[in-house]
Amino acid sequence: MPFESRRRARDEKRDAVLRTAVQLFLEQGYHRATLNEVAERLNITKPALYNYFRSKEEILFECWAIGQEQVDDFIAEINASDDNGLVKLRRLVRAYAENMATDYGASLVRFDPRDLSEKNSRIVRAAKRGIDRTFRKYIAEGMADGSIKPCDPKMTAFMIAGSLNWIGHWFQPGGELSAEAIAGEFALRLTEGLAARPARKRAAAAPAKRRRAGGGSR
Amino acid sequence: MPFESRRRARDEKRDAVLRTAVQLFLEQGYHRATLNEVAERLNITKPALYNYFRSKEEILFECWAIGQEQVDDFIAEINASDDNGLVKLRRLVRAYAENMATDYGASLVRFDPRDLSEKNSRIVRAAKRGIDRTFRKYIAEGMADGSIKPCDPKMTAFMIAGSLNWIGHWFQPGGELSAEAIAGEFALRLTEGLAARPARKRAAAAPAKRRRAGGGSR
Amino acid sequence: MPFESRRRARDEKRDAVLRTAVQLFLEQGYHRATLNEVAERLNITKPALYNYFRSKEEILFECWAIGQEQVDDFIAEINASDDNGLVKLRRLVRAYAENMATDYGASLVRFDPRDLSEKNSRIVRAAKRGIDRTFRKYIAEGMADGSIKPCDPKMTAFMIAGSLNWIGHWFQPGGELSAEAIAGEFALRLTEGLAARPARKRAAAAPAKRRRAGGGSR
Amino acid sequence: MPFESRRRARDEKRDAVLRTAVQLFLEQGYHRATLNEVAERLNITKPALYNYFRSKEEILFECWAIGQEQVDDFIAEINASDDNGLVKLRRLVRAYAENMATDYGASLVRFDPRDLSEKNSRIVRAAKRGIDRTFRKYIAEGMADGSIKPCDPKMTAFMIAGSLNWIGHWFQPGGELSAEAIAGEFALRLTEGLAARPARKRAAAAPAKRRRAGGGSR
DNA sequence: TATGAATGAGTATTCATTCAT
DNA sequence: AATGAATGAATACTCATTCAT
């Protein structure tokens, strides 16, 4: 019992350190942010941080890892569905956009992998490639299943990812645009140009509805 | 004459410093890059750099300024034209994309304004807002002149700018995609969804509109 | 009874700490060795060490003290005998050599008194002087009782002590030379040059003396 | 010209740093000595030291290297001679003893190789083995050429080296014993017990003299 | 008695910047 | 215009020690 609660307390403090650190790193940039200030904001001393992390770099990496885990989660969920390529892409865009509006999500694009150790840097770069591949895969799937019209998957993925990543730079929590609104709008607009034209003159209702679901934004 | 040539030689050296610096800053990041290494690559000594610049920060700012000047130039040129909003936007996208594929262009989005002095930081942020306004202005103009269909200028500008800025992160000079090809493709794809249906044969309203909205721009 | 057993258990643990510490200090050097590692090797935690010792320095001092006690013991024993100076010296060399082959013995010469508090440092230095005095005393006694031939006690003591102390640096428990063998050999060789010519056949004075001085001791 | 003098000034300052450092390291021990104090004694600032050395460890290594170089030098000189084993050994003892009375010489035995980087530590350990081998070699040579009577070269070398190394711990420059006196006495005493007994009853003068030169200490 | 957590003091190192030459 | 040398400010990290539980 004391062990479990100890452990929980410890994990909570660790999380608190990460939350504080990610905010500070985003605010001031990794290099300008000092562990002293992280500690000050937590009302502890600098060496206390070393109870939870081995180095500043490890903190940076953990921040990134949390954001990446969230991405991995929703990608796994989307992969598990049997939606067509266009729908998968749309779901990815929405989820990614929402993630970009969080601290940990933004850290995915605003932290510099070169600040990490070689080992961790490799992990990060591999994960980034993985995300890129997912975008391209959904686009390719969509072209294969007819939900997306022919295009260059690589460059299209870059365009979409660029728009999304940019959110991590301009989004402000208290601003006039909510994360959900942005995510919805991005999901709609970034994919509307890709939707294959519905087969003309389809009288039936249900299929039409489906079309709307798939290409409804136009 | 000797004065002029002196001055020219000086300017050339200054430019050489900037070219070396911008490359190094992009390669390693501003904080990891040392003036020592800049000097080494130029086969001069570190204090020699101070003949041309007052500080490391000034070098950073000058790199940014060169990229910004290029942007200002082509924006001025586009502004001076009497193209409609859509065409202006397309021209902006193309020019901006090409610029992103250069070192100085990439520095616009890969350098962190917080590394600058307060004064210079303000200049940079103002310029960034100016670019954003330009995107929105062209979109608004397009909506006004009928070349662009109704949309939210702010978010649309963010999407386009994000795609473009991202180029500065992934473009590699020797890669399979040339800057021109990328610029062409981006100018096409990033605006096709925005183009208002051409004025011809306006009779068939509703159905046509539907179709066009989906794939009409291409 | 429970009090006594408590106390005994405590002392045993204290000893275990010292045994572990002296090994680690010898292995890695006092400064590189951390109390954390001492604790780890004992499967306890660092603060637990403070139940037995007030500081790292006290541990160091206690290690030294154990080694010194052993030296004091055999010196007392030799002092109590009525051997002549040469024999006393030989016994001292043997005992000292054997002691040098133990962890606590080696700590006498491999630990740096300057790592101790001023108070303890003085104790250590006094003890070292005491050992030195003992060597000189035996030599002087030997010269007085005719068992040792004339020499400079001070420098002779330094030579012998140096050879002996060096054992603490090169001796390895599992090596080809056993502590006993080393001690025996050292006791023999380090004193053979000092032995006065045996009293027999004193007739042939000059030439004999000459010869003996050279190789006479063996 | 300015280049040469610059270089010389630089080397002199480097040497001054080493002289100050070796003294301080000997006085206080490597770990207790701070670069700050080294700098203070030189009336410069700590970072200025980094103009001459890359790290504290490098300073330590350089101190050792100077002492080692002196040893290498006189070993090379002795090796080059055609003296018999006993004479070589005696010359080695004398030179080594004198070296031990210098700061750099003492640093050979009072600095801990474990404070060095793995690379430098290996160099040091190799050099130490080399010295040991030299002692044993001279002893073996002496036994082969008849100047040294049979003994165990390994243990004999340890005894002699121990006496010599100990000088580095107790010698004090201003003390009553001069380095030369010590070296002379050590050369005599540490080898007298090893000299092979001259062939008995040698009438002839010259050979006898020779004997004296070789084994004269007995 | 033992522990997890926290602390404070201390140190090597880096690097932009300046200065005398 | 250029350089070698020097500086000062700043920061991550270590570890013995303490304290509340």
UniProtKB/TrEMBL annotation, chains A, B, C, D:
Residues covered by region (Disordered): 199-218
Keywords: DNA-binding, Transcription, Transcription regulation
Residues annotated to bind DNA: 34-53
GO molecular function, one term: DNA-binding transcription factor activity
Pfam families in the record: TetR_C_24, TetR_N
Domain HTH tetR-type: from-to ranges: 11-71
Protein name stated in the entry: TetR/AcrR family transcriptional regulator
UniProt organism field: Bradyrhizobium sediminis
